[in-house]
Amino acid sequence: MPPLAVCPTVRIQAGHYIAEISPSAGGRLLSLTYTDGQPPIDCIVPWRSEEPFHPHDWPKAGAFVMLPFTNRLAPAQFMWFGKDITLDNASPTQQGLHGFGHRRPWQLMQTTSSSAELRMKHAGTDAEWPWPFEAILMYQLSEVGLTVQVSVCNTSSETMPLSLGWHPFLPYATGAHDQTDVWRVHAQRQHVIGLDGLGHAEACMSPSPMQTFPLPLEQAGTVAYENYSGQIMLPLTRDWQLALRSQYASHLLIHTPLGFNHVCVEPISALPGALRHTELAKKLLSLTPGESRSLVCTLGLEATHILS
Predict the structure, then answer these.
(1) Helix-strand-coil percent breakdown of the chain, rounded to 5?
(2) Would you tell me how many other CB atoms lie within 10 Å of the CB of residue 11?
(3) CB 301 within 8 A of CB 244
């Protein structure tokens, strides 16, 4: 596969926020900076390089959308309405990882000073995904931060599965706070997926009460949260916390890598391994011809309320 070019990039600005985007590098967000401070504050791990990169070996920085499926699929195959679907994504590990929207160039449709709209059309003629679709990705800055909206329309003549997610690399330093226990995840259930992220988490179809879980920031691993509250706060500095909110993403995955100086906090519309649970996948992931599905995420800074 040819390397993905990072340049040219698009820069948008509103209030005290500046964002830089690379349409050609999978529609990625390269940086989100809050400028009303000395020095300016990075709201995601910034991606400073202009060098092209291999689609399966991307820098651990910035943020990208996940589609048409999320998280790991190992091996890259599943059953769908009686058909054995095998995905050939040329991955060295033969895994499906985060779909392929982040490994394809996107077309820049229009921009304003504070927004950028991108589009990707998939013809469905290659072995990565047998169904054609069209995706629209919108970045919008305001005084309160960044809104990312991705929408996918099934342009095929068959029902296809679809799950969406957003994958930001968020800055975090262990020990930055001595009161990290005040940051929590509110969700119905917690699933420990494992450090390699290959675990599965089957959704519970019966209602269950919301629970409160501590953020898993002090130990490497991957944890999924089922039916989370739609918002999460993450400590950044002693004065600021990151506020991440989502709509149409029922679940949340948090991946803390070994030797980390960042954490991946990913709103997702399907739990890891959802495509493996055939009947449940039909019920939760089916997108009929002409139907669209969206995901909306917002990220910005808020002042902490635990200052002594």
Answers:
(1) 5, 45, 50
(2) 13
(3) no
- By CB atoms closer than 10 A (0-12, 13-18, 19+), residue 65 is buried
Structure tokens at 214: 């501590």
Long-range contacts: 283-287, Cβ < 8 Å, 24+? 284/203, 285/161, 285/162, 285/163, 286/159, 286/160, 286/161, 287/152, 287/154, 287/159, 287/160, 287/161, 287/162
Instruction: Name the token pair of 15.
Output: 């209030």
What does R_g of the chain's alpha carbons equal in angstroms? 19
Residue 1 lies in a domain: no
Please give the angle made by the CA atoms of 39, 45 and 50, to the nearest 5 degrees: 95
Q: Where are the alpha helices (DSSP H) in the chain?
A: 278-285
Residue 121 within any structural domain of the chain: yes
Length of the chain: 308
3-class SS at 179?
coil
- Tell me if the pTM is above 0.85: yes
8 Å CB contact between 229 and 212 = no
For residue 282, what are the CA distances in angstroms to 101, 118, 136, 162? 22, 29, 24, 10
For the segment 77-111, what is each residue's pLDDT rounded down to a tens digit? 899 999 999 888 767 777 788 999 999 999 999 99
The answer as to whether 3 is a domain residue is: no
pLDDT tens for each residue of 174-226: 555 555 556 899 999 999 987 765 666 777 767 789 999 998 887 889 999 99
Total structural domains within the chain: 1
CA 184 to chain centroid, in Å, comes to 19
Domain contains 5 = no
Q: Which among 48, 30, 282 has a CA at the least distance from the CA of 161?
A: 282
Q: Which residue has the tokens 């070019």?
A: 5
Residue 6 in tokens? 């990072």
Backbone angles phi, psi at 7, to 5 degrees: -95, 150
Q: In this structure, what CATH number is given to the domain that contains residue 87?
A: 2.70.98.10
**Parent domain of 206:** 10-303
| Whether the Cβ atoms of residue 222 and residue 96 lie closer than 8 Å to each other | no
